Amino acid sequence: MVDSADKLAYFQAITGLEDPDLCTQILQAHNWDLELAVSSFTSNHNNDPLSSSSTTATTTTAVEPSISPVHRYDSTAISPVAPPPPPGLAWKIITLPISIISGSLRILSGAVGFGFWAAGGILSYPLGFIGLGSSSGRGGDSSAQLVTVSAASREALEFVAEFERDYGASGSSMPNFVGEGFMDALTRSRDSFKLLFVYLHSPDHPDTPAFCEGTLCSEVFCAFVNENFVAWGGSLRGSEGFKMSNSLKASRFPFCAVVMPATNQRIALLQQVEGPKTPEEMLMTLQRVLEESASVLVAARLEAEERTANIRLREEQDAAYRAALEADQAREQQLREEQERLEREAAEAERKRKEEEEAQERAAREAAEKEAALARMRQEKALSLGAEPEKGPEVTQVLVRFPTGDRKERRFHSTATIQSLYDYVDSLGCLDVENYSLVSNFPRVVYGTDKLSLSLKEAGLHPQAGLFVELN
C-alpha cells in the first residue's frame, strides 16, 4: 500500500489540482481511497457542462479501468450508463512479487529521485492499486521457490533465442530484447532514462505468430522501439514471464505494456495494449506515451545530471579540502620539525655553553690552584734558602741569566748545594716551565740531577760563578 504522501502526490498529478489542502480534504472525504476519490472527481468534472460538449457521450464498450487505453473515447455512441474517462495515459501502481524483486535489488536503491515519474503529470487516468500477494496470481502461493538472478537471465536469453529462431531467422528486423531479468531491464531503462517496453509472449495463442511477424518485426516499429525504449520480453512458459502476466493482469494476448520504476517494490504501468494490433496502431500508442512522458524523462535526466554534477562538485571540493588539509598538515609538520630542530640546536648550544663555562671554570680553578701551589712552592723554597749571607771568604757569589735576558744575583754559603741554586731560581717565579737546567759556559758544565747534592765549592763554583738557565 502506498502512504498518504504518495496518494496525495498521485491525486494532484492525476487531477491537476495544485492546492494540497483541497486534495487532502477530497481524499479524506473518500477515506483515502485514491481510486474512489479520483473516479468521483473525474465523474463530477466530466459531467460539468463547461467541460463536456455532451452529457450523454460514453465509451464504445463498458470496461474495467484496467483495460488497455487503446479502447478510446467514442463521442458518437450514446449511453447514459457511465461517464467518459479523460484522455491521456492509463496507469497502475503495480507491487511486484518478491520472486521478481529478489532477482535484482538494484532498482530499489536507484528509484530515489526517479521513481516518482507517476507524480510528474504524465498520468491522467486511474486504474487502481494492485497488491500481488499469494492469492493475486496464477503462479501458486508465495512460498514458491524464488527466481535467482542466473535463472531470470537464462529465461530471458532463452526467450530471445526462441523469438529470433521463430521470427528473425530470415534476416527481418526484431526488437532488441535485453537478455536479462525484468528487474535488471527496469534498472537499465532507469539508468538510460527510457521507458521499458514489455512484451509477454504466449506461444500457444493463435494471434501470436501474425502479431510477431507483422507488428513486432515490422522494420518501422522495431526501429522506433529500439531507438526510444528498452525492450524486455518474457514467455508465459517461463517463471518470470508467467509471474509478470499475473502482476500486470494480462487478460488478452498478444500483450504489450510500457512501464517505469515507481517507489519501493512497485512499478508504474503507463500503457498496456492487449490483443493483436497493427504496426501503425502500436506506433501511434507508443508515440503518444513518449510525447506525454518526454518532459518527465528530460526532467529526470536533468536531475540526474545535476545530481552527478553536484556529486562531482562535492568530490572536487572534498579533494580540494583534503589537498588543502594535507598541505596545512605538511606545513604544520614542517613547522614542528623546524621548531624541534631549533629547540635541539638551542639545547645543544646551551649544553656546549655550559660545558665551556664549566671547562673555563675548571681551568681557572686549576690555574688558580696551580698558581697557588707555585706560590707556596716558591715561598717554601725561599724560606728554605734562609737569609742571604754577607760577603766573606766562605761566601759564593752566583749570577743567573734567564732566556728572557733577565739577570739575578745572590750570595750563597760555599757549602750550599747545587739544589739550593735550583730552589733559588724556582723561588723567583721567572720561568713558566719546570724542566730546565743550570749550565756554565767556560767550561760548559750542565749541573743536572746527578750534581744536585754537590756543594758549590765541590762543583767548582766558589768563590763566584755565572750560570745560564737552559730550557729542556
* Terminal CA distance: 120 Å
Number of strands: 11
Task: Provide the low-confidence segments as ranges.
Answer: 48-90, 102-148
What helical percentage do the residues reach? 40-55%
Number of H/I helices: 12
The fraction of residues assigned to DSSP E strands is 15-25%
Cα shape: rod-shaped
Largest sheet: 6 strands, mixed
Compute the CA-based radius of gyration: 59 Å
> Can you list the strand order of the major beta sheet?
2-1-6-5-3-4
**What is the SS-derived class?**
alpha/beta
Strand-and-helix sequence, N→C?
A: HHHEHHEHHEHHEHEEHEEHEEE
Overall mean pLDDT stands at 78
What is the compact description of this entry?
By secondary structure, the protein is α/β, with parallel strands linked by helices.
Care to describe what's here?
The chain has a six-stranded mixed sheet, sandwiched between helices. Strands 8-7-11-9-10 form a five-stranded mixed sheet, covered by helices on one side. The protein is 46% helix and 16% strand. Helix 9 packs parallel to helix 11. The longest helix has 107 residues, at 279-385. It has 472 residues and is an alpha/beta fold. The chain starts with a helix and ends with a strand. It has twelve helices and eleven strands. Residues 48-90 and 102-148 have low confidence and may be disordered. Keywords: Coiled coil, Endoplasmic reticulum, Ubl conjugation pathway.
